[in-house]
Amino acid sequence: MLSSNNELFKNVPLRITRQLFERADTDYRVYAASMLDPKLEIPVDQRGELTITGEMAHYDEGTVTKMDLLYDEPASHRYNKPSYQLKAVHYGLPEDAPGQWAFLTQALAKSPATLGKLVDAVPPNEKILDLLLNGSLLDKKITGVGEKTLLRLQAIVKRNTDLSLLMAAFGDRLTPIAYQHVFDHFGDAKRAIKQINTDPYILIEVGGIGFKTADKFALAAGIPRNDPRRIQFGMQYVFATEILASGNTFASIKFFVAKCTDALSVAPVDVTPQLTPEAGWRNGFVVNTKYQLVTTMAMYVKEADLFQGIMKAEKQRWPVLEEEKLAAAITEFEAKHRVTLDDQQRAFLTTANTRGITVLNGAAGTGKTWIINVFVQIMKAHNKKLTLMAPIGRAAKVLRDYTGHYAGTIHARLGLMPGFEFAAYTRQGNTDAYGKSDFIIVDESSMLTTDLAWELVRSVVYEKRHLIFVGDAFQLPAIGPGNFLNDLAQSPAVATITLKHVYRQGAKSGILDLASTIREREPLPFNAAQPAYLSGSLRLYNQRDEATIANTLIAAYHSLWAGNGHDTNQMLLLVNRNKGTLGRMQMNARIQQFACPAVPGQPEYVAPYVNPDTEEPDTFRVGDKVMVLANDSRAQKVDPNTNRRIVATKDDEDDVAASDHVDYETTVITNGDTGLITHIDVRRHFLVVQVDDDYVYFSFGGLTNKIALAYAVTVYKSQGGQAAHVLIGLAPSGSMVNAQSFYTAITRAEASADCYGDFGMLTSRLQIVPVEHRHDLLKNFLSGRLDVDTFGQQPVAAMRDVLAPLPQAAPVPAADKQAAPNKPRLTVAVDPELLAMLKQKKQNHK
């Protein structure tokens, strides 16, 4: 049957067959499904299947559901199968006994034992779901089915009925997945409907629903564009997407008002009244009229916490290792290795041993990692304990390789969810993560956002241990708000040792010489007219044609690959964008053809759709080098010997879905981690990637948004990594090219670096230093230009009370006891008007 675009088909019964796609950090998914009613005239393929796209919950294979579907002709061509956009999911419960038993059978598809016991105990003509809802089954003793199981089944049934009530109340003003988020947040449809009707912007508090969704809902409900509540939440949204996303932690009031008026389609007069100090406080902002600056209360308190934590650490000055023993250990090391430490190196060893916080800053080649290794070996020899960390796994691995001491990620050590910075402010950090460690060393500290630095600084008990930050303040700034390492390195209040002498010379001197030239803003040794610049193992070629650059890079990579025993870890190809002839995607596809070609009979994953940039389906094979694209704090671990996930615990047999519900051991992986595909199971639809020491499970569903080939990566993604030979290809547009990105790119090389790009573009773009365009309050606190308690015009302690009130069980000062009455117990009453409204909607629908 032919169909036209945007044709709507209602009440289509479907069985989910498999997940085809999942967009990282969103609810957008694509499923393949089969029709359950062959009599319905709806376009399907020869196997009776179709494709569904949209924001959806996770559906297991075999799930039966009923949906409203809108035919999508462009997607049908993309997936080469009749494709539909999801418009609605039909919830609610069957009213007849057979239908209710069919629903229960679906709910217990993975618990056949529990289903069998219920079938034996309850006659088939009984309405089993009604018995669950009214509690009759709880009173009836059913052998082998406990109260816990029945309560969970009751919750499943209530969820469906409540979702039906929500959809009856609001129709298509929310997506099907949004209704599930609403129910999960409120736990009761009637309460949710009443509160949302009172204030639509309460939806922002619901996980999975952001300002844009809530705003669209509220505007559809008739809320004026200049409504104060809309302005309040809109300002928070604009600050996150325009100010924090640009790396800044504050903005001028004038600039912020302009951004808000543009994003919210309102007049400046609608926004300005909300940015007085008093109104700002109510709206979650700190407004300083003297300097005409604004920041969020949460960011202000984090920067204040950071400053106060650093000052607290500075007061803790005591030697972990007795000073005489350290001096003797340094002398012994020099004699044993026939080296003489310079003054800066000695200063670092003694300062880090004594100060609460120490910063080790230095350009590439100045021996930061070498002196850290010296420090680690001396302290280990004297039975001192150390914790070594880095912001990402790749950098932790480099640190581990240099020192021979285990190093992990900050997120894993502190148990942080990647992306945690979007969570609400909390008072307490993790202060029990370091065991008996005497020192915490954090490498690649230039990658620390304000949020991650805040978690780190407050996690250390400085009376017990010292904290050491290591990094190159000229590398690319963190992808997120703040300029943390720069702030510390430039502050006279923080003990900072800056290594200046370049020790790595020889063939690599050309790389380090140019890196130093860029860093120090000296005149470049090449110009737009010359064909090439060659210095030691650094080779720059002036090329302007993108296709020529791409072909040259591929040939160079192949030559290095052949000459290094096919070890792709020895090579790193860096580009400055993702798409196009010289983009990451096309370069990876071309390298894969010879680095990991298809082998007859060997399993591989082939994406179910064509990548529009490469014009081929994305493909993964065993042996492919890949990069993680999405943060995951609960990535499931796999036993490499069996290629099965490692079981942690298993539910009791009496539980819902007990026979199949299993908890697995997990690990933390972060966006940018690299690994190797070690196993592909096309029958069970998963593959395994070795990421550092862990083997991680990836289902095929949405796989191309979870991992990508990593023979070629962007410069931003290369931070923290190194390779013997680095190849760099820069598109003529110069997008994402600047002094710090180019500096970062060439200093990834351990032996040689070859770059192909337009010298005219380079000489122009290397004048731009992004870190100079960032601004934060921490730097001003550390320098003494601003005072923490006077800039905000309110004490920081008062802001903490607003953001994270103390628990009610906490002692109340005597003077405040009358002002803190006991909170009344929450009760939920049935609203007759609400029930009448829903009944009327149901009648109208019929």
From TrEMBL:
Instruction: Tell me which residues make up the UvrD-like helicase C-terminal domain.
Output: 709-751
Looking up Gene3D superfamilies in the UniProt record yields: 1.10.10.2220, 2.30.30.940, P-loop containing nucleotide triphosphate hydrolases
Q: Which SUPFAM superfamilies match?
A: P-loop containing nucleoside triphosphate hydrolases (SSF52540)
Q: Which domain of life is it from?
A: Bacteria
Q: List residues of the ATP-dependent RecD2 DNA helicase-like helix-hairpin-helix domain.
A: 179-250
Is Nucleotide-binding one of the keywords? Answer: yes
- Spans through the membrane: none
Which terms are listed as keywords in the entry?
ATP-binding, Nucleotide-binding
Q: Does the keyword Nucleotide-binding apply?
A: yes
UniProt cross-references to InterPro entries, sorted A to Z: Coronavir_polyprotein_1ab, P-loop_NTPase, RecD2-like_HHH, UvrD-like_helicase_C
PANTHER family in the record, alphabetically?
A: DNA HELICASE B, DNA2/NAM7 HELICASE FAMILY MEMBER
Which protein, by its recorded name, is this? AAA family ATPase
Q: Which organism is it from?
A: Schleiferilactobacillus harbinensis
